[in-house]
Amino acid sequence: MTMDFEVLAAIAMLGFFVWVIFRSGGANPVGTGQLQNQLNTVGSKVGTLEGKLAGCASAAELQQLREELDKMEGRMASSGEVLALGQQMAAVRAEIHNLRNVIDERHQARQDSLAGITSDVTFIKQFLMEKGLGGR
After folding, report:
1. Stated pTM of the model
2. What are the backbone dihedrals phi and psi of residue 76, each rounded to the nearest 5 degrees, phi first?
3. CA torsion sign, 93 to 95 to 96 to 101?
């Protein structure tokens, strides 16, 4: 009877070990391969993100761009300065227009003077030609 009790106790302990191993093995993701599947999924997502981010700037490059942008903003003119420059440009355009009118008037006066001189020269030439030919 002691032998039966020892065998029964050994079978019970062996059964308990088998039950514990399979029960906790079901909850263990390594044993079922669930953890490996999750790691593979995360790995493929990381690979996809690395592919998308391959041409992106690093943090140091972004900081350098930020500094350059700050410098450019410091050099940019304010809207008031831009409006003042616009008014100055309008004044310069008006002055150029006035100077062009003055030049056009002077040019017209020279053309009129030249036309008068040309008619006088023509008259003198005609007079001399008549007197020079008529006197012979």
Report:
1. 0.36
2. -70, 145
3. positive
